Amino acid sequence: MVDLFNAVADSNGITRDPKILEGNVVRSFQDRVHYDRTFHFFNVSSFGKHEKMIKAEFRMFRRKQTILSRNLLGHHFYKLDLYELLDSRVKPWRGNLITSRLLPVYTQGWEVFNVTDIVSKWIHNSNANNGILAVTSLPSGNLLEYVLPALKRSKLDEKNAYLVIFSDDGRKMSKTDSELSQGSRKSPVTDAAVTLMKTENAVPITRGNKSRRTRAAPYNSNRHPITCQRVPLYVDFEKIGWTGWIISPRGYNAYHCIGSCPFPLGESLRATNHATVQSIVNALKLSKDVETPCCVPDKLQSISLLYFDDEENVVLKQYDDMVALSCGCH
């Protein structure tokens, strides 16, 4: 899961490409069986009922046979059959065949099996979840028992199987660059505001009337008002007490917006049409209740978080609208 996180996000969690993942949530469920290398059970109760499952994978680490049984001598491959168990009994067991695969005897690595249909049934009916059984045999059909070298107990206790579910939680993704590009285009309403300033009847923009409270604009070191802009805001997960459940990243730069939105609102302030009209009404003092527009994020980006859920499963999830990419007057 850490490798997957590094593939989809940088060190700050910024998503490199949302299309890399299938959906926006990836969950890794631990094998709840610790005494048997052939029987695997996964508690999928934490999967959200409102989520749409896209794909489920059973991932099993296949170890190289360093000490071979007599019936393996002369063979280069063995057969692995995966079964969906139909009841809670392991011996004698009943099951439906999921898939079969021929595997080399002298190599090791992760094997990935598509179990989408089986897991979908488990999610809709938890009583149908009796686990998965992995049965090994020779190509001839004779059952094959694992023969393990003398390993320390800590090695035998290592997890060798996971269930990984890719899903979509139904949230709408953040607006794309093309959808937000209107902030950089010249607005007819902005043109109207500039024209208004040039007319003979335009009211000079002064602050002689102090009867209405106005926002205090921030100033730079030269005591000049700062116009709407983006500035850094680093969020350290350790300082806010989130490192107990977030695996990666350790923090990220969220940025935030500061500054004023002075009349007339120029193109650089990325003002909405509504903000431009509000600015005109404020400048002309047509209503004492209308203040100047606010400097807020107008383009946001998602980040990816790798964390533990309440069941201690590892989850990789994209969270929308976590980083301010630009600021504008709204």
Put simply, the count of helices is 6
Question: What is the number of beta strands?
Answer: 15
Distance between the first and last residues' Cα: 40 Å
- Major sheet, described briefly? 7 strands, antiparallel
Average the pLDDT over all residues and give the rounded result. 75
Strand content: 25-35%
Shape: elongated
- The spatial strand order of the largest sheet comes to 6-3-8-1-15-14-11
Radius of gyration: 30 Å
Topology as H/E string? HEEEEEEHEHEHHEEEEEHEE
Helix vs. strand class: alpha+beta
The level of helicity is: 10-25%
Weakly predicted, low-confidence segments: 146-157, 174-216
InterPro entries: Cystine-knot_cytokine (IPR029034), TGF-b_C (IPR001839), TGF-b_propeptide (IPR001111), TGF-beta-rel (IPR015615), TGFb_CS (IPR017948)
Subcellular location: Secreted
Keywords: Disulfide bond, Glycoprotein, Growth factor, Secreted, Signal
GO molecular function, one term: cytokine activity
Describe this structure in words.
Helix 5 runs parallel beside helix 6 (273-283). It is built from 6 helices and 15 strands. The longest helix is centred in the middle third of the chain and has 11 residues, at 188-198. 14% of the residues lie in helices and 31% in strands. The strands form 4 sheets. The chain has a 7-stranded antiparallel beta sheet with strand order 6-3-8-1-15-14-11, sandwiched between helices. It has a 4-stranded antiparallel beta sheet with strand order 2-7-4-5, with no helix packed on it. It has a two-stranded antiparallel sheet with strand order 9-13. It is elongated and about 90 Å long. The chain is of the alpha+beta class and 330 residues long. The two termini are 40 Å apart. Its main location: secreted. It comes from Anguilla anguilla. It is found in: Secreted. This is TGF-beta family profile domain-containing protein. Keywords: Disulfide bond, Glycoprotein, Growth factor, Secreted, Signal.
